[in-house]
Design brief:
Length: about 525
Amino acid sequence: SSCHGSPKTNSLPEGIRQPPMSELRNVWIFAGCAALNSCNLGYDLGINSVVGPPLQEDFGLNSVELELFIAALDFFSIFGALASGKISDFLGRRKAFAVAACTFLAGTVFLVVSTSYLMLMLGRCLLGLGIGFGLAADPLYISEVTPREHRGRFVSLSEIGINVGLVLGFLTGAALSWMPGHVRWRWMFAAGGVLPCVMLLLVRFVMVESPRWLMLKDRADEAITVMELLYPKGTDVASMVDDIKVDIAQECALNAKVRWRDLFCPAPAVKEMLIVGVGIAGCQQLCGIDILQYFMLFILNDAGIESESSQIASLVALGFIKLLLVIVAGPLFDRSGRRPLLLASCAGMSVSLLVLAINAWFLNVAWLTLVALVAFLSSFSFGMGPGAWLIPSEVFGNHVRAKGMALATVANRIVGSVMAATALSLSEALTWGGCYFLLTCVVVGIFLFIYWRVPETKGMSLEEVTAYFVEITNDRSSLLHTPSLEHESGRQVPLDLPTPMGKASDLAWDGVGRPT
């Protein structure tokens, strides 16, 4: 059988015309506004790449204290992400963005006026809560105002927003590099308050409420008005709203049956969804991206690039390259599929990390360090960056989607905080070369995980993805009504579902429900 079957493209409900991308101007505007919220995380990543040394010098911080300061944001973003669902359901998606922006602003104020390590940590915790709110709210809002057929491109806007913020953080560091260290870091954090202020203005004067949330609140007339604003004339908005209504009714009925206990003691199909969705979200951080971004100045200094102007210039160049690759990634995910880009991304990262390790151990050539860093960030940006959020949004069935996405976000933040909290200590114990080699082995493991466990979800509806996991685990308890065919083995196999090794109808099946 073929190893790369073409995924089935889902047709829209009868009467609904799918508008082309060129006619979705308002969708682009509102999705872009939501993605701007991700700039807060990117700015923090960028500014902390340059703020660490002056902050460490001004407060006399040791390596562990600086690690904990950096990692606190990832750790407390977990609690923000967990609370975000309740906040966005109660207040609405737009007001959830306002809550995130206000929390981020409060954290910025605490950082700017800090006179002690305790105040620094308090400000950092508030920043983490605000970023956690935004991390969960961004993809939720974007998925609810954009058409399913273009979700790969639109979901990648959040990753683009992170990278725009990253570049802004690097540029701010470069613009303020002339200041004395004890003043510079305060202005760097203060400049981060501009983005949440812009977000508050967009929430108030530009963004619309999610039509799905309006339907949840039985405000169908307002939902139709928003849909008419989102889609061009000629689109059957009423049918689309009816479709949302049916989907909400099914999801509410399923959610009423699913408890957290069901995810921690899951049925086989749900267990496989969790392994893929939560696993890929954790792997995004496990590859070491935050270590290289948060501690970039330490890495460049170790490579022999000691001039501050050269370090800042290198950071800005790396940031722009990473941003360009992320912009390209969205259309590629819709054209090439998820698995090829994820696998290519891991292959590129592992080679880049191995080059960094060899260079740090034996060569110590500054330009080779820069080339390998460019290759690593580029490889991450066109695959694992956006893909690690796209896959979880697609593999969880309606009945576990909300709770599954929450677990994926928590896994991502936990791994990120652990990586950030141990980076400098590991570099002191193993040297940076040892850290690179350890990360190389980890990324090779991630490659194997994706190859064996992550299915191709391009062009599949949530119901088809659920049916795929049901079939490979032989778990009838989770099966939604999906067209199927009788396989020659006697198993019921969904029609032409994409799998890691082709179409389900092309596969032989072993005794435990896995394709052979």
